[in-house]
Write a structure and sequence with these properties.
The chain is α+β, with helices and mostly antiparallel strands. Among the domains are: about 15-55 and about 190-260, ATPase, nucleotide binding domain (Nucleotidyltransferase, domain 5, 2-Layer Sandwich), CATH 3.30.420.40; about 60-190, Alpha-Beta Complex (Actin, Chain A, domain 4). Helices cover about 30% and strands about 20% of the residues. The chain contains nine helices and 14 strands. The chain has helices at about 15-20, 60-70, 110-125, 140-150, 170-175, 195-205, 215, 230-245, 255-290, and strands spanning about 25-30, 35-45, 45, 55, 85-90, 100, 155, 160-165, 220-225, 250, 315, 325, 345-350, 360-365. The strands form five sheets. Strands 1, 2, 3, 4, 9 and 10 form a six-stranded mixed sheet that branches. A two-stranded antiparallel sheet has the order 5-6. The longest helix has about 30 residues, at about 255-290. It is extended, with a radius of gyration of 38 Å. Belongs to the actin family. This is Actin-like ATPase domain-containing protein. InterPro entries: Actin, ATPase_NBD.
């Protein structure tokens, strides 16, 4: 820091910053990143160290699951990076790829090959892999049968080969929630139940005070790149509701479809209520005989037209507020009196004749000051 000339700096823990980014001083932060998954309880901006739970079941583990899927699928899928393909021919789904490999006059480092293969697997995870939303676990027979009847998703690899993926794309990520669904990998041969996301959350909440748990469950912050899997937040919401049925669960995350659907339902409910009130108001006004004139073309950018009132309809009086004693027939109004000279004091009174028409009586009195 001395070499950079920084006058001062402040270091903070990543879960605390994630909670602050979501506008929460107290939250349960679930960070599903690349190397590990962590669950941390934050209270008043302080990280509760006893609640920190970590697991290697994260993005890199998911990439190993995808590699295991490619190696055990029929036919076996070989990952060919983009830079190795010179030309390719379109083929049907499940058919062997037909492509021409590119040759280089120099050797390519192993690290670069692994990096390019990782890019292909990352694109596959973002495009195909999906989390089973629930309810229940994916390995139940009825859920697997249901997924097989649904439309699959086709993914084309850089070498031109493509394949239909149905229940396999759910099985890959199911190990994050159910240890029995995880494929054995080289780095992690088996997944324990304590390493799954639901058990990490349970252990983190059990390590804090009982009085803090309702507040933490109502402020759950989900972050990390692996949490962007399609259906991840929906599955998390279902798992939390199953573990804590009497608590109020609220998740704050990017692209949360559950919160969006709930908000949209509330908006639609409010719009329906406003439409019902509008219909009742129109029905009451139609019974009283109140007429609402149609407005002109106010949305075309031009000047609005004046309101046109139908002849012979009742309107609301501006003075007394009553309805029915004023007619809009323009011929019913008495003509205005002629101009009165300035030396005449006009005293006017209004009355209504037998037909309900307004008339104006003017009594002219000469001003005595102008007498000579």
């Amino acid at each position: 820091m001395e070499n950079w000339g920084c006058p001062a700096f402040w270091m903070s823990r990543t879960p605390v910053l994630s909670a602050f980014a979501a506008g929460k001083a107290s939250a349960l932060v679930i960070d599903v990143g690349g190397a590990n998954t962590s669950v941390t309880a934050i209270h008043d901006g302080m990280c509760l160290k006893r609640s920190i739970q970590r697991s290697p079941v994260a993005g890199l583990w998911l990439s190993d699951q995808v590699r295991h899927l490619f190696g055990t699928s029929e036919p076996k899928i070989e990952v060919v990076p983009t830079y190795m393909v010179e030309s390719k021919t379109p083929v049907d789904a499940g058919a062997p790829p037909q492509f021409k490999s590119r040759t280089f006059p120099f050797s390519i480092d192993k690290s670069f090959v692994e990096y390019e293969n990782g890019r292909v697997i990352t694109e596959f995870k973002e495009s195909v892999v999906e989390t089973w939303r629930g309810p229940g676990k994916f390995l139940s027979p009825q859920n697997e049968e249901y997924v097989r009847t649904q439309p699959g998703r086709i993914y084309e690899f850089p070498n031109g080969g493509n394949q239909m993926w149905r229940e396999q794309r759910y099985r890959v990520s199911e190990g994050m929630w159910d240890e029995a669904a995880a494929f054995p990998t080289e780095d992690l041969p088996t997944v324990n139940k304590s390493q799954t996301i639901p058990e990490l959350i349970r252990s983190a909440l059990n390590a804090v005070d009982v009085d803090l748990r309702p507040n933490l469950l109502g402020n759950i912050v989900v972050t990390g790149s692996t949490s962007l899997l399609n259906g991840f937040n929906d599955r998390l919401n279902n798992e939390l509701m199953a573990m804590f049925p009497g608590s109020k669960i609220k998740i704050h995350a990017a692209g949360l479809t559950t919160e969006h659907r709930r908000t949209l339902a509330e908006i639609n409910k409010e719009l329906e209520r406003l439409n019902r009130n509008k219909a009742r108001r129109k029905a009451r006004e139609s019974q009283k005989g109140i007429h609402h004139p149609k407005s002109g073309n106010g949305g075309d950018g031009g000047s609005p037209e004046p309101d046109k009132v139908a002849t012979g309809t009742s309107r609301k009086c501006n003075n007394c507020g009553q309805v029915g004693h004023i007619k809009t027939n323009k011929n019913s109004f008495a003509p205005l009196p002629s101009f009165t000279p300035h030396h005449i004091v006009a005293l006017s009174t209004r009355r209504t004749d037998d037909m309900g028409r307004r008339k104006i009586e003017i009594k002219a009195i000469k001003d005595d000051r102008n007498r000579s």
